[in-house]
Specification:
single chain; alpha+beta; Immunoglobulin-like; Ubiquitin-like (UB roll); 3 domains; seven-stranded mixed sheet; six-stranded mixed sheet; elongated; DNA-binding transcription activator activity, RNA polymerase II-specific; nucleus; transcription regulation; Alpha-globin transcription factor CP2; SAM_3
């Protein structure tokens, strides 16, 4: 028992010795760091806690970016701390991107008082889809003829100059802007993320996109080719109001997590700041046929040579202005865009040519409204606008001059059983009722240039020649008939035309 009672005493001695040794080992830390030098910020500054910063260039930490782009849409709260932000957008909704001048005083003086050009792109975030981007976009264009992936809402935008969209590059727009002035551009994304997923069982997650902005300044050659800055952010696009529902779902999920779990996720910010990235490679690409999408009055760009070696050309769209019942829904969509019915193309996306032609006047007016409905109905029925003046002319020299002098083929038909001369008249349709328009029509009939017809005369009473003027044409009766006689001018290679 005595031995057993001494055991705790021995343990206390051993324990006190260990404590003294441990305290002595810790005393060196205080001597090296000094009083008050130990803090959490020093620990976080160690390289093992700065993995992201160590992967960046050394100068990037102190670098001030010349521009900053802010997308006015909230970020998702369900993104982990060290992951890139994710922003949800609604299809077709206008979102503001603020273009901010972030330069210090004296930085980049060469762009002071000058415009810069920014190119907006919606591209794939996944590397796998980036390799097949051309094929993916061509497939989308075939399924959505006439639509664009990216558009600028010009009426809502502020400070943008000369906005342009290339009809063959559906995911790209560009414009000029002055960094010294307030600039906000409103963009619309018309594709949704699930359009590029393999549909198997339904409910698949949509692929993420990137909104990338590349800004250039004007070079010595006058073109905007000198790169200044690039930034991008990650987005997902949902059907209308789908982004709001997804944002609400993520917020409710985060509210159910514990406080410890919430620390692993980023908070949701009201706006999305685009982060610096490499400029997008400018690879020239010419698809099989241009898409008649957004195109403003400033025209489009010239494309460089090149193309995708794996791209297969699709059949060219029909060029007829008359809708045919044999046309497929894709061909009918293209016809609608050519006839300026683009806003209603989605309503008729599953209609073939025969389906459209079966619509009654009341059906079209109910779908498109009175003004556009009547216009579409007339286009479907092929109703043409009647010309203001129709003239019938016969070239006198072509009919070989009748040997019986004085016979007028307009009033005296040819006698006999058909062995005589047969006079052929041509119709001229005038819209402007001007002498210049009549000269162009006659030049086309004679297969000469318009400047070769010097003057046009009308034979009046007693054989006088009256100069044809705009006022004379405006007073001619419709469907008048004339014989044409031509006299070659002596001094030049031109003609005088006489209407008899």
């Amino acid at each position: 028992m005595a031995w057993a009672l001494k055991l705790p005493l021995a343990d206390e001695v051993i324990e006190s010795g260990l404590v003294q040794d441990f305290d002595a080992s810790l005393s060196g830390i205080g001597q090296e760091l000094g009083a008050g030098a130990y803090s959490m910020s020093d620990v976080l500054a160690l390289p093992i806690f700065k993995q992201e910063e160590s992967s960046l260039p050394a100068e990037s930490t102190d670098k001030v970016l010349p521009f900053q782009y802010v997308l006015c849409a909230a970020t998702s709260p369900a993104v982990k701390l060290h992951d890139e932000t994710l922003t949800y957008l609604n299809q077709g909704q206008s979102y503001e991107i603020r273009m901010l001048d972030n330069r210090k005083l004296g930085e980049l003086p060469e762009i002071n008082g000058k415009l810069v050009k920014s190119i907006f792109r919606v591209v794939f975030h996944d590397r796998r889809l980036q390799y097949t981007e051309h094929q993916q976009l061509e497939g989308w264009r075939w399924n959505r003829p006439g639509d664009r992936i990216l558009d600028i809402d010009i009426p809502m935008s502020v400070g943008i100059i000369d906005p342009r969209a290339n009809p063959t590059q559906l995911n790209t727009v560009e414009f000029l802007w002055d960094p010294a002035k307030r600039t906000s551009v409103f963009i619309q994304v018309h594709c949704i993320s699930t359009e590029f997923t393999l549909r198997k069982h339904g409910g698949e997650k949509g692929v993420p996109f990137r909104v990338q902005i590349d800004t250039f300044r004007q070079g010595d050659g006058g073109d905007y080719s000198e790169h200044l800055h690039s930034a991008s952010c990650q987005i997902k696009v949902f059907k209308p109001k789908g982004a709001d529902r997804k944002q609400k779902t993520d917020r409710e999920k985060m509210e159910k997590r514990t406080a410890h779990e919430k620390e692993k996720y980023q908070p949701s910010y009201e706006t999305t700041i685009l982060t610096e990235c490499s400029p997008w490679p400018d690879v020239p690409y010419v698809p099989s046929a241009p898409s008649p999408g957004f195109n403003n009055s400033h025209g489009t760009f010239r494309l460089g040579d090149g193309g995708s070696p794996s791209h297969q050309a699709e059949p060219p769209p029909p060029l007829s202005d008359t809708l045919l019942p044999t046309w497929t829904p894709q061909e009918a969509q293209q016809w609608l865009h050519r006839q300026r019915f683009g806003p209603f193309a989605r309503l008729f996306r599953n209609f073939s040519g025969a389906d459209l032609l079966k619509l009654s006047r009341d059906d079209v007016i109910q779908i498109c409204g009175p003004a556009d409905g009547i216009r579409l109905f007339n286009a479907l029925k092929g109703r043409q606008v009647r010309p203001r003046l129709t003239l019938y002319v016969c070239q006198e020299s072509a009919q070989g001059r009748d040997p019986r002098q004085g016979r007028d083929p307009r009033t005296e038909p040819e006698e006999g059983d058909g062995a005589g001369t047969f006079f052929v008249y041509h119709a001229l349709y005038l819209e402007e009722l001007t002498a210049a328009e009549l000269s162009e029509k006659l030049a086309h009939l004679f297969r000469v240039s318009a400047h070769q017809i010097q003057q046009i005369h009308k034979q009046g009473p007693t054989g006088i020649h009256v100069l044809v003027s705009d006022e004379m044409l405006q007073n001619l009766p419709d469907e008048s008939c004339f014989l044409l006689d031509t006299l070659k001018a002596e001094s030049s290679d031109s003609y005088h035309v006489i209407l008899k």
